[in-house]
Amino acid sequence: MTAAQRFLRYIRYDTQSDETSQTVPSTEKQRSLGALIAQELRELELEGVELDEKGYVYAFLPATPGQEAAPTIALLAHLDTAPGVSGEHVQPRQVPCTGEDIVLNEALGVVMETAVFPDLLENVGKTLIVTDGTTLLGADDKAGVAEIIAAVAYLRAHPELPHGRVALCFTPDEEIGRGADHVDLEKLGAAFGYTVDGGPLGTLEYENFNAAGAEVIVRGVNIHPGEAKGKMKNASLIAAEFIAMVPPAEAPAYTQGYEGFYHLCSLEGDESWARLSWLIRDHQREKFQERKDCLERIAAYLNARYGAGTVTLKVQDSYYNMKEKLLPHPEILERARHAFRAVGVEPRDVPIRGGTDGAKLSFLGLPCPNLSTGGYHYHGIFEYIPREDLETMAEVLVKLLIEKKK
C-alpha cells in the first residue's frame, strides 16, 4: 500500500482522546487503530511487535548486514485525534487543487476559500484529501503513522538499502498532552528519534513553547442582592477583574512566531464560586517565568483587595522548549535536512507554536525533533493534506534512515 492508501484506511477509525478521562489510553477506541497497525507491522515481519496494555504500539526493523553498529533511530507518531472536533465517520474526498475555492459541503454551505486559506495557492496542481465539512480529517497524526509505515515497508522490500536498527512507537493521547508519558525508552533503545507530526511539507521543528497550565479558583460571598451592600463578594465579577488584568494584547489571536501568550480556555461560575482555566506559553524561559509571575501578582492583588483566600492560583508546568536539548546535537537536525533535500524539498526551520511528544522525550533523554507530515489546518473541518505530499514524506523518511556509504 502507498502512504495515501494507508492514510485513507486509518482515518476510518475514530480515535479522539478525552482530556477528562483518567485512564490510559484515555479512550478505548484508540486501541482499535493500534491493533490494526500492530497487525500490519507483523505482516511486514518486523521484530518485537507489541500493542501494550497502555495502548502504545512498538515494533523494530532490524539493521541490514554490516550496519549493526549504526545508531538506532526512533520514529514516532500518535494515534489519537483532537477532542475538539468530531473524528467519527470521516468522509474524505480527493479533489484537484486549481487555485479556486473548494466546496466541502454544499448543503451546509461549507467552503474552503483561498482568501481565508491562501496556502491553497501553494498546492495548485496537487490532489488534496479534504473533509466533508463536518469532521476533522485526521492527518494529525494518522498521516505521520501512514508515512512511517510506508517508509518501513519500502525498506523491508529493498534489503539492498543499508540502514541501522529502526524503532517504531505509535502513541495514544498526544492531543491531550500525555503521549510521551508512558513511552518505554529502554525498550526503544534509540540514540535519537523524530516525531512525524508537523505541518506543511519541508518543515523541521526543534523549537517549541515552554508550557504551563493555570487554574484560578475564586471564592465569593453570596447574599440576597437586596441586602448585599458591603457584604457580597461576587466571584464571577472578581474573576472578570482577573481576566481584565491579564495583558489583552498577549492572547493567541494577537501573537505569532516567537511571541508567547496567555490563553483563557474556559470560565464558569456564579456569585459564590468561579473558575478560570489558562494556558501560558513562551519560547524563552525567562519570559515564560515572567508570565507565571504576572498571574501570581494578579492573584495577590485581588486577595489584598477582597481578603486572603478569595483567589487561589495553581500553576503546573507541562513541557519545555526542546531547543536546549537539540542544539547540542546538530547532526540530528542535519540528517533531517539532508533527507528533505535528497527528494528535492528545501527544509524550513519553523518554531512550533505548541508542543509535541518530542519536547517531553527530549527532556527524558531522547533528542527528538519534529518533521512535517504535509498536512494543513489541523483540528478542524478545513484540515487537508496533498496526496502527493504523503508519498514524498514517506520518501523523506526512507532517506533519513539510509546510512551513507563510507
Task: Describe it.
By secondary structure, the chain is an alpha+beta fold. Helix content is 29%, strand content 22%. The protein contains ten helices and 17 strands. The strands form four sheets. An eight-stranded mixed β-sheet has the order 1-2-8-3-9-16-10-15, with helices on one face. A four-stranded antiparallel β-sheet has the order 12-13-11-14, covered by helices on one side. A three-stranded antiparallel β-sheet has the order 4-7-17. The longest helix has 22 residues, at 285-306.
Which descriptors apply to this entry?
four-stranded antiparallel beta sheet; single chain; eight-stranded mixed beta sheet
Q: Please give the number of β-strands.
A: 17
Point out poorly predicted stretches. none
Integer average pLDDT = 96
SSE order in H/E notation? HHEEEEEEEHEHEEEHEEHEHHEHEEH
Helix content: 25-40%
| Biggest sheet strand line-up | 1-2-8-3-9-16-10-15
